[in-house]
Design a protein that fits this description.
232 residues, alpha+beta, mRNA Triphosphatase Cet1, Chain A, eight-stranded antiparallel β-barrel, 7 helices, globular
């Protein structure tokens, strides 16, 4: 099964105090995501990049358009994962994803991409061609905890991501004891505002006028600060 989502995505770096105030202001207008639980849900992604780290370098150099390929799951105990192709141009993004079994995801996480040729979805063929022709390899695991709010109208979704951590030493995506190093400073939160078409005025007002400027934040690039030795 494949999914195709196109929408605007804005990112902000805020403090935990700002995040708490925003939670209270947007709660009357947006639905609490059912997966949140009491503390939010875990997101873990394995990012692929070329031998020359082209996707990393193009992001830092401000190329437009650009892409990222990642394998995403929601907790290491999960029996499925999503292989995602995320393409960004200006403020807009298109994210296409394939839902895969745990067994197939394990093979991809080891850099074995030939299984994609046996899938019927057209996206599988496109991803196989990209991964093989540009010599992609698994590069970095990124993990964080997310709290999300949503509205079906205009596909509006606000997410608060914190406890960002990563590793480039062990790419065992499903390992429940994976050792990760911290990427965020304590109390830092990444707010993502996503919508299709336009953002409702009630949500804009709830976000308030004291917001910092939107940033071109990449969790993948931030996570690779160790191997890139200050390139970020």
């Amino acid at each position: 099964m494949s999914l195709d989502v196109t929408r605007v995505e804005l990112k902000y770096r805020i403090s935990q105090i700002q995040a708490l105030h925003l939670h209270a202001r947007i709660a009357p207008f947006l639905q609490w995501d059912a997966h949140n639980g009491s503390r939010g849900y875990l997101v873990r992604s394995l990012y692929f990049d070329t031998l020359q780290d082209s996707d990393f370098e193009e992001k830092l150099d401000g190329y437009d358009p650009r892409r990222k390929i990642r394998l995403r799951l929601y907790g290491p105990e999960g029996q499925t994962a999503k292989l995602e192709l995320k393409e960004k141009q200006n403020r807009g993004q298109r994210k296409r994803s394939l839902l895969l079994s745990r067994a197939v995801a394990l093979e991809l996480a080891r850099g074995r991409f030939d299984l994609l040729r046996g899938l019927q979805e057209p996206l599988a063929g496109q991803l196989y061609w990209l991964l093989k022709s540009r010599a992609y390899l698994p590069k970095c695991v990124v993990q964080y905890r997310r709290i999300a709010y949503q509205s079906p109208d205009n596909d509006i979704r606000l997410t608060f991501d914190q406890e960002l951590c990563a590793t480039e030493a062990n790419l065992s995506l499903f390992d429940p004891r994976l050792i990760l190093y911290p990427v965020d400073r304590p109390g830092e939160v990444t707010l993502e505002v996503k919508y299709n078409g336009f953002l409702f005025s009630s949500v804009k007002q709830a976000l308030g006028g004291g917001m910092p400027a939107a940033e071109s934040v990449s969790k993948y690039c931030m996570a690779r600060r160790i191997s890139k030795h200050g390139r970020i």
